[in-house]
Structure formats: structure tokens, C-alpha cells
Amino acid sequence: MKTVSDNQADLLRRHGLQATAQRLAVLRAVSERPHGTADDVAGAVRARIGVISRQAVYDALGVLAENGLIRRIQPAGSPARYEDRVGDNHHHLICRRCGRMVDVDCAVGAAPCLTAAEDSGYEIDEAEVIYWGVCPDCREAPHTDRARP
């Protein structure tokens, strides 16, 4: 019976990547903590395998994103976040108060789920939308003047 690590190692190899302990730990951390920042991922990786440099985490995140194994999300005014839900062109909703991010499926139709009024000759294959609002927990909590993350 294959373990999660075995499956992730196979996934890396299918994409022509070496299945290093660092890459496996980063991939697992992203899978276990969707929408985590690089610092979140680094903390989880250190807890799992011990010492790893911040640069090694950034390098692994970059390689995994470049190869389509994870997705890098860069909301305005927020550090990049990472997730392993790829290939379905979903979007995100972010709370302006606490910064919590959740997935939102496409609003209408197939990818790209938004049609540009003018494509300028591009072949469009993805639309990225970030919705901003206030999550249910923050709506119920007393309002503080915390700026969006």
C-alpha cells in the first residue's frame, strides 16, 4: 500500500523532478495547509524534517509552482499564498479583517470562466479573480480597525 509520501514522490517524478526530502515536505505542507504563506510552509516543513533554510523553501515552492504542482496566489497587499488545488481555474474569497482565504468555484461556465471584452490577440486560458469581503466570524465579532492583510 502506497503512502502519501510515495504518491507525492511519484507525482514529482512524473513531472521530471527529483523527489528530495525538502520538496516532499514542502508539497505535503502546502497540501495540509491550503492558502498558507511561505513562512507558514517553512514552519510546517521545519516541524516535519528539522532544519531547512528559508531560501530552500522558496526554491521548492518556485519549482513546484513552475511545474504546475501547486498554485501561487498573490492577493494585493498580502504575501503570496500557496495551494495544491490546480487545474480547475477556481477563484478566492478573502476576509478584509482577518485575512482568511477560501476557495470559490468559477462563477459561470468553463475555464476561463470570465470572458475578456477584448483579448488583444491572446489565447486566454485562465482567469484569476479575488473577491474581498468580511467572513462570518469577523462579522459576528466586535469590529476592530484591522486593515486588510
Describe this structure in words.
The chain is α+β, with helices and mostly antiparallel strands and 149 residues long. It has 2 domains: 4-73, Orthogonal Bundle (Arc Repressor Mutant, subunit A), CATH 1.10.10.10; 87-140, Dna Ligase, domain 1 (2-Layer Sandwich). The protein has helices spanning 4-14, 21-32, 38-49, 54-66, 136-140, and strands at residues 36-37, 71-73, 81-83, 91-95, 101-104, 130-133. The strands form 2 sheets. The chain has a 3-stranded antiparallel β-sheet with strand order 1-3-2. Strands 5-4-6 form a 3-stranded mixed β-sheet, with no helix packed on it. A hairpin with a 5-residue loop joins β4 (91-95) and β5 (101-104). The longest helix has 13 residues, at 54-66.
Task: Give a concise summary.
With 149 residues, this protein is of the alpha+beta class. It is 36% helix and 14% strand. The mean pLDDT is 88.
Largest sheet: 3 strands, antiparallel
- How far apart the termini lie comes to 42 Å
Q: Report mean pLDDT, rounded to a whole number.
A: 88
What's the level 1 CATH class of the largest domain? Mainly Alpha
CATH third-tier fold name of the largest domain? Arc Repressor Mutant, subunit A
Envelope shape? globular
Q: What would you call the structural class?
A: alpha+beta
Q: What order do the helices and strands follow?
A: HHEHHEEEEEH
| Strand line-up in the sheet with most strands | 1-3-2
Number of strands: 6
CATH homologous superfamily caption of the largest domain:
Winged helix-like DNA-binding domain superfamily/Winged helix DNA-binding domain
Fraction in beta strands: 5-15%
